[in-house]
What we know:
The chain is mostly helical and 114 residues long. 67% of the residues lie in helices and 8% in strands. Strands 1-2 form a two-stranded antiparallel sheet.
Amino acid sequence: MLKDFRDFIGKGSAIDLAVGLIxxxxxxxxxxxxxxxxxxPLTGLISKVDFSNMYFVxxxxxxxxxxxxxxxxxxxxxxxGYGQFITVLINPGFPFWVSxxxxxxxxxxxxxxx
Length: 114
């Protein structure tokens, strides 16, 4: 059993997998920061929408314009914050769009060669 494990490690498959996971984790962190710190604020600037303070009041009375953090502290109020959910949806979508766009244009301009 130890010999099989040593052979598996020696083939490089496990090392390649570990390196891939480390690089993927680093890229994920970079892209999340890029979306959170650049894309979402720019989207908010262009559309005049503040994603961080988007919420529904399900129960209770919360004055209009109250930030989400303070709205959650209002006694008897039940608040559903959906702005962060929108941000989470943008996180994987934007990097996919950015990486997909050059691929679409490059593949469309290449002649078909067999």
